[in-house]
Amino acid sequence: MKERAINPYALWLSSIRGVGNQTIKTLLETASCAEEVYHMSEDEISMCLVDKLKRRSDATGKALSICFSQERDPIEEAENLRQRGIGFVSMEDDCFPQRLRGIPDCPYGLYYIRDLPPDDVPSVAIVGARNCSSYGREQARAFAEKLALNGISVVSGMARGVDGIAGRAAAGAGGRSYAVLGCGVDVVYPEENAELYDILKERGGLISEYLPGTKPQTKLFPKRNRLISGLADLVLVIEARRRSGTVITVDSALEQGRDIFALPGRVSDALSDGCNFLISQGAGIACTPETVIEHFYGVNESGTDLFEQKRKERNLRREDLPGMEKVLFDVLGYKEIMEPDFLIGRMESILGRHIGVEEFTSCMLDLQMRGLAAEVGSGHYKGVG
C-alpha cells in the first residue's frame, strides 16, 4: 500500500461531532478549504451557516462546536491516526475515490485501513442475504473468486452471509477485496467475520465514513450502503428478499447510475424473490461470472472474451523471457498485488535455492521494462499487460 499523506485540517473538520457532510459543504461554499475554516472566527462561521440552516440557534450552536474544536491540534491528531495504521482522505484530496465524487450525499471524508479501491480498475459490489442458502453461498464464492482472478475489485459490507463470503473468496484468490463498514474502521463487526477483518487489514481494505471507535448501530448501515454501491461500477445481487437491506443498496445504485446484475433463482424460493424481481425490471442476468466479466471487457467479433484473448497474447510473450524472469512471471500471476518477500519465497520454493534481493530486483526491472509487471505503491508489484 502506498501511504497517503493526511490533510490534518480536513481530518479535523471531518471529526467534529455534530458537524456532518452538509454543514461542511456549506462552510466550503465560502471557505476555500478546511484549513481556512480552522482559522475563521465564530462570527464568520455563523454567517456562513445562518442562511442555510432554518434556525439561527442551530447555526450558532454549530459555530460554537467548530470554534471549540479549534483548540485541538490537527497536526498532532493526524499523526496519532497515522500511527494507529488508519488513513484518511477527503474531497479536498486528489486521491479521494473518483467514483464517489458524483454520488448524492458524497461523504466529505473517508477513514480506511490499508487501501482504497483504485479508480482505474473495474469494481463490483457483491451484496445479498445474511441468511443465504447453500446455493447463495456457493454462487457468492464462485462469482467473487472468478471476478478477483480477472482483475476486478470486489466491494462488500463484510456482513454475515453473502457479503462476508464474497469478501473472503476475493481475498483468498489473491485479488482486491474491500469492505465498507457501518462502524469505525477499527471496530470488528460482526465478530464472526473477525478473520476476514484481519485478512482485509493486511491484504485488502477497510473503509468507513464514521469516526474510528464508532460502534455499530442499526441506523448507520442503510447510509453505509450508498458507499458500497458508490465505490462500484456494477452491483451484483446474489440472493435477496423483496424487502431487505440489499434492496436499499440497489436503490442507491440506481440513483447513482450504476449497473445492476442479479443471480436468477427458483420462483418458489423467498431468498430469490428480490433477484427475480430485479431481473423482471431490467437488471442483467448473472448466469455465470463470465457474464459480468464480459460486461467490463467485452467480446470480439468471433465471440471470444477480449480479456481472455489479451491474457493469451501476454502469455505468448512469456516464451521470450529468460529462465529467472519466466519463473518470476509465473509467480507474479496476472493483476494480483504481491510483496517482494512473498514473491521471493515462492521463487525459492520453485528453484530450490536462495534468491537475493539484488537478483530479484534485476528480474523485476526486466519484467517492468517489458511491460509485464508494475510497481503498485511502495514495494508491491502486480502483473500487467
Could you explain how this protein is built, in words?
With 385 residues, the chain is α/β, with parallel strands linked by helices. The protein has 3 domains: 8-74; 123-297, Rossmann fold; 306-383, Winged helix-like DNA-binding domain superfamily/Winged helix DNA-binding domain (Arc Repressor Mutant, subunit A, Orthogonal Bundle). The chain is built from 18 helices and 11 strands. The protein has helices at residues 8-14, 21-27, 34-38, 42-50, 56-69, 74-83, 98-101, 134-149, 162-172, 194-203, 220-230, 245-256, 273-280, 289-297, 306-318, 323-332, 340-351, 357-369, and strands at residues 87-90, 109-113, 123-127, 153-156, 177-180, 205-208, 234-237, 259-262, 284-285, 373-376, 380-383. The strands form 2 sheets. A 9-stranded mixed β-sheet has the order 1-2-6-5-4-3-7-8-9, with helices on both faces. Helix 1 (8-14) packs across helix 6 (74-83), helix 11 packs across helix 12 and helix 16 crosses helix 17 (340-351). The two termini are 21 Å apart. The model has no long low-confidence stretch (mean pLDDT 89).
